[in-house]
Amino acid sequence: MGDDEMKPAPFEYFAARSAAEAAEALAAANGDGKIIAGGQSLMPMINVRLVKPTILIDINRIAGLDRIEKHGERLGIGATVRHRMTATDALVHRHIPILHDAMHHVAHLTVRNRGTFCGSVCHADPAAEMPMMTLLLNGMVTALSIRGERRIAASEFFVGSLMTALEQDEFVTSIEIDTLPPETGWGFEEFSRRHGDFALASVATTLRIIDGVARDVRFGMMGVGETPLRLPDIETLIEGQTISETLLQDVTEALKELLHPNTDIHASADYRRHLAGALARRALRDAWARATLRKDGANA
């Protein structure tokens, strides 16, 4: 590859002042336009010509997209909310502590200062934290086009590695996720070669303790499939049980059967399955311990 091919193909740039302007520009591009907010994944791909948009449509000047807001039992995250804002936001810390914990694993300082929550979800890397958290927390993606708004459940949004259910003329304006009841315990475990690198495997789980057993169990993973995963079979296995060494061994064995990760230059499929079991044990122990502390604190 010559030096000239390491630079972007020519493209136009448009700074939209409203969501409607952005939607019109994207429609006019006939599938050759790209939305840019943080650009931390998009620009490297453009620089090596993996993608060749004819126009970049900048949404950073659109008012109202840089907010995190609570709506009842849900939290809305706008399209230009940076990772740093998510990591330091009081609403996130108070109502979704597992997301607050996950943010410490996201890339590096410069990326967190520019990259966005919604952009990470749209990029749909199966080893990135925000897609997994969106799936774990019953996310609802709001997409806009000149045809109007469309709401897409996270369970239907991720269709493959770096692939989503977005149409070519749609862009995400916000993502809504669940807040967690105050007595919820959580566990987040991730393994990567270096801090901030993409995960070889990761586990996120939440649960409550009701009448001495686990209830409202959620269990998600990343880095072990073509998309982020929510594993209902594991959730059912844990639901109504206490977290014991026997149960943790059952979870480990179940994961070996459920997961079919790829082998690549970073890790073999067997190693990723081994990691999945080890991380699941840690995350579930943490979730149970935190749920116990929170339940005891509420009853004190």
Give a topology summary:
Layout: E1 12-15, H1 19-28, E2 33-36, H2 42-47, E3 55-58, E4 68-71, E5 74-78, H3 83-88, H4 90-95, H5 97-103, H6 109-114, H7 117-123, H8 129-136, E6 140-145, E7 148-153, H9 154-157, E8 158-160, E9 163-164, E10 171-178, E11 185-191, E12 201-210, E13 213-222, E14 229-230, H10 232-238, H11 245-258, H12 269-299
Parallel strand pairs: 1-3, 2-3
Antiparallel strand pairs: 4-5, 5-10, 6-7, 6-10, 8-9, 11-12, 12-13, 13-14
Could you describe the 3D structure shown?
There is one protein chain. This protein is an alpha+beta fold and 300 residues long. It has 3 domains: 9-58, Uridine Diphospho-n-acetylenolpyruvylglucosamine Reductase, domain 2 (2-Layer Sandwich), CATH 3.30.43.10; 68-178, Uridine Diphospho-n-acetylenolpyruvylglucosamine Reductase, domain 3; 185-295, CO dehydrogenase flavoprotein, C-terminal domain (Enolase-like, domain 1, 2-Layer Sandwich). Helix content is 37%, strand content 25%. It has 12 helices and 14 strands. It has helices at residues 19-28, 42-47, 83-88, 90-95, 97-103, 109-114, 117-123, 129-136, 154-157, 232-238, 245-258, 269-299, and strands spanning 12-15, 33-36, 55-58, 68-71, 74-78, 140-145, 148-153, 158-160, 163-164, 171-178, 185-191, 201-210, 213-222, 229-230. Strands 4-5-10-6-7 form a 5-stranded antiparallel beta sheet. Strands 11-12-13-14 form a 4-stranded antiparallel beta sheet, with helices on both faces. Strand 4 and strand 5 (74-78) form a beta hairpin. Helix 7 packs across helix 8 and helix 10 (232-238) runs antiparallel to helix 11 (245-258). The radius of gyration is 20 Å and the shape is globular. It starts with 11 loop residues before the first strand and ends with a helix. The mean pLDDT is 95. Keywords: FAD, Flavoprotein, Oxidoreductase, Plasmid. It comes from Sinorhizobium americanum. Residues 6-182 form the FAD-binding PCMH-type domain. Its EC number is 1.2.99.2. This is Carbon monoxide dehydrogenase.
